[in-house]
Amino acid sequence: MIAFSVVSTFATNKGSVAIRDTVSPAKRNELVSKLRSISGLTKLSFDADGFLRLGADSSERGSHGARELLKNAVSGENIVVIEDASSRADVAFCRVVMGRWTKANSALSAFVVLIDFSDFHQLTGDQQARAAFDVGWGFLHELDHVVADSQDAETEDSLGECEAHINEMRHELGLPLRSNYFFTALSMQTDPNFGTRLVRLAFEQRDPHTDRTRRFWLIWDSTVVGGLIASKQTAAVRATPLTRK
Ligand SMILES: [Zn+2]
Fold it and tell me: What is the DSSP string of 121-171?
């Protein structure tokens, strides 16, 4: 649980999504730029008080599903606060946790989206997979949990309804779809002597010319990104039991 005291601010009508002032301008810009390119909302920004403003929606580009999710979040009853969790070992990419008000008895439900911006800079692998998994996609995943009350996969062979929603948005943009919720060890390239543990996550796309499915990999060092120990949490990624040691 994370405590914060912005309840009076949210009594205004500026919307339900805000970013903490501790998130640096560079990181805000990174998130804004990814969300603009996914949603097609070219005027999307955070205002001077940190509230997410979507701007006019005249876009014919970008994902319609992402625009709907963002609109529903901003106009929704649940309060969402974005917090910088960079370099935290307990946050692999993004997580959402329930918040609690430090001033008593707010009737509003509050959620904190923790973003480890530094983790997204650790990603390597195929360019197509990297386009389908950045800080914008990670944030939308957590937002879908809050807005649609969607769940993550519980078993290794399922994707989970949350990522299924996000895949619909990737499909709209012609990006490869995430095929697994859980990441797995890339054992061939893991050398215990160097203290790294490379893991990978698969994305797939049908090639219309050959009618074959192409697979693209996202690869990172989980000793740097984290997420290996957290077995039960609402997160953007999770380790399979085999990867978790
Ligand atoms: Zn999740």
Answer: TT-EE-HHHHHTSSHHHHHHHHHHHHHH-----SSTT---HHHHHHHHHHH
- Confidence band for 1, pLDDT divided at 50, 70 and 90: very low
Give the Å distance between the CA of 244 and the centre of ligand 1. 17
Distance 139 CA to ligand 1 centre (A): 10
CA of 135 to the centre of ligand 1 (A): 14
Backbone angles phi, psi at 131, to 5 degrees: -70, -20
218 closest CA partner among 191, 178, 245: 178
Give me the pLDDT at residue 245, please. 35
Ligand 1 centre from 194 Cα, in Å? 30
Domain ranges for the chain: 2-174
Q: Report ipTM (2 d.p.).
A: 0.99
